[in-house]
TrEMBL record:
Catalytic activity annotation: O-phospho-L-serine + 2-oxoglutarate = 3-phosphooxypyruvate + L-glutamate; 4-(phosphooxy)-L-threonine + 2-oxoglutarate = (R)-3-hydroxy-2-oxo-4-phosphooxybutanoate + L-glutamate
Enzyme class: transferase
Origin species: Longimonas halophila
Protein name (record): Phosphoserine aminotransferase
EC numbers on record: 2.6.1.52
KW Mitochondrion (keyword) present: no
NCBIfam families: PRK05355.1, serC_1
PROSITE patterns xref list: AA_TRANSFER_CLASS_5
Domain of life of the organism encoding this protein: Bacteria
Cell compartment(s), UniProt: Cytoplasm
Main localization, broad class: cytoplasm
Similarity comment: Belongs to the class-V pyridoxal-phosphate-dependent aminotransferase family. SerC subfamily.
Name of the gene encoding the protein in the UniProt record: serC
Segments traversing the membrane: none
Function: Catalyzes the reversible conversion of 3-phosphohydroxypyruvate to phosphoserine and of 3-hydroxy-2-oxo-4-phosphonooxybutanoate to phosphohydroxythreonine.
Length: 359
């Protein structure tokens, strides 16, 4: 009847836990004892401060961030980070290395090149970004200021397996996989992620920076674009409402058992869907098997002409936002943390039934 929550496979913004949305709804007009909503009170108030501190505490615990990591809540999306990273860390007389694994890393490289010298250490462009270049083939320089990767490629449905090693600090765009698995933080200098896939609503970008990496940044940066400004103090009005929702999602994640439990569940969800895709020739996976993303499985129907029907009949079953990115086509079922196993089971059942009807 149009008022019910459906199984939402959207790639971004992604689905959020229903319990979090209900809590937000209940607290919307009056937050705690503030006598107003969280949106209407000072970002310097004790009420808001407690929310932000709690979000930091939960992130630190969930990801195992030590005291040498700064947690920043910035605006401008992950796209702003494409520029802010090289602005801060690409030295005027040096260079950075970039591994290109899709549309977003190409955009990141473009911004770096506007500011200085950026070298393509590896690219999957020759396979239409259906692979992750083999680590042994990366052309890395020990003099690079940093190595930039995109650890999960939302559009193409590929993902690095684990955390790569490099001699220089790695900067990763983890927008579409952050908090979906435990991370080995050792190789990283900076991790960034728009909140709107796995953490909350659009409007806040989480940036994690190791203190020793932060210390290497360029001089004379514009105040708002200098990570140091935000690492030192709360400089201006933060995106209060998105941070408030992120805090609830982080608490929800803790209650689910944290990133280890979530990783196990995410692997089970992805395996269920990929096994269904592989079971017959009716459906086809698009990317290399060893590069398959747990977060954004991309696939298609062997008979492409059936796709509009697939989407229409799926929608009638309450399964929505399954269309692939316009640049790739086909289908994409994003399986972010908040998407329950039941949703994947419902999708797989639907895929079976659809094949029976049209196969
Ligand atoms: N990086 C990745 C991996 C993404 O999936 C997206 C998605 O939109 C972006 C960057 C761009 O993020 P934003 O829209 O927050 O700028």
């Amino acid at each position: 009847d149009g008022t019910q929550r459906l199984h939402n496979f959207s790639a971004g913004p992604g689905t959020l836990p229903t319990s979090v949305l209900q809590e937000v709804r209940d607290e919307l007009p009056v937050y705690g004892t503030a006598g107003a909503s969280i949106m209407e009170i000072s970002h310097r108030s004790a009420d808001y401060d407690a929310v932000e501190q709690s979000a930091r505490r939960h992130l630190r615990r969930l990801l195992g961030l030590g005291d040498d990591w700064h947690i920043l809540f910035l605006q401008g999306g992950a796209s702003m980070q494409f520029h802010q990273v090289p602005l801060n860390f690409l030295p005027p007389d040096g260079h950075a290395d970039y591994v290109l694994t899709g549309r977003w890393s190409v955009k990141a490289l473009r911004e770096a090149k506007l500011l200085g010298t950026a070298h393509t250490a590896a690219t999957a462009e020759d396979t239409d970004f259906t692979t992750i270049p083999d680590r042994d083939t990366w052309d890395l320089s020990p003099e690079a200021a940093y190595l930039h990767i995109t650890s999960n490629n939302t559009v193409h449905g590929t993902q690095f397996s684990g955390d790569p090693e490099a001699e220089v600090p790695i900067v990763t765009d983890a927008s579409s996989e952050i908090l979906s698995r435990p991370m080995n933080l050792d190789p990283y200098g900076l991790i960034y992620a728009g909140a709107q896939k796995n953490m909350g609503p659009a409007g806040v970008t989480v940036v994690l920076i190791r203190d020793s990496f932060l210390a290497r940044r360029n001089d004379d940066l514009p105040t708002m674009l200098d990570y140091g400004t935000h690492a030192e103090r709360r400089f201006n009005t933060p995106p209060v409402f998105p941070i408030y929702v992120v805090e609830k999602v982080l608490r929800w994640l803790r209650d689910q058992g944290g990133v280890e439990a979530m990783h196990t569940l995410n692997q089970q969800k992805a395996a269920l869907l990929y096994n269904r895709i592989d079971r017959t020739d009716f459906y086809e996976g698009i990317v290399a098997r060893n590069a398959r993303s747990t977060m954004n499985p991309v696939f298609r129907l062997h008979d492409d002409a059936l796709q509009p029907r697939f989407l229409q009949e799926a929608k009638a079953e309450g399964l929505v936002n399954l269309k692939g990115h316009r640049s790739v086509g086909g289908l994409r079922a994003s399986l972010y943390n908040a998407l329950p196993m039941e949703a994947v089971e419902a999708l797989v059942d639907f895929m079976d039934a659809f094949e029976q009807r049209h196969g």
